[in-house]
Write a structure and sequence with these properties.
single chain; alpha+beta; elongated
Amino acid sequence: MDFTKIMATWWSGNCYHTEQLKAITSSPEIKAYAYILHDKCKMNDSEELKKPHYHFLVQLYKNQRGSWFKQFKSEDMGIVFAQPCRTPDKAFDYLIHDTNNARKEGKHLYDPSERVSTIESFENNDKRDDEHAELYEDLIELLQSKITWHDLIKKKPKRIHMIANIKVAYDLLHYEIHGYRYFDRPQLKPPKAQPQLTKATPEEEKDLPF
């Protein structure tokens, strides 16, 4: 899934370099953050340790696209992986692998003291960001013919009240992907009338060269 165009205020991700992490967490656009160094994670079905890396959770002051994180990419330090976070409280627990799934997978449980955080609470999380991200994903599937308009409305019937906004979003996405606007595409002109062929009369046939 391409997250570069999805907008959200909460993002979780990872990177490998301390400089990248500092650049992200010290950005003036970051409202709060939490991170931890994972240096005791094992490879799947192996005792070999993974390369040490940082996991982070950040809250921005306003919605940002995933492409915002591209500014922290460099040839020396590589890319920064980030994805929109619908449940920041669970992502916060995952930083130390304090989740049911992490335990089932046998992941190392880090001590909470290893987690650095400036996040005070998750009570003010704006769930509209989650809805916007989900709607964007649904519109992409609609454009890719994976779902129909009926499926889109059936999934959340209340979206029928948002149909005007959905139309605008779908139109913009259609232009972005296909190069022209779906709803505003020009009407096809009717084909020009073709001349009607008629059978020549006996007199006209005499003048034909064949």
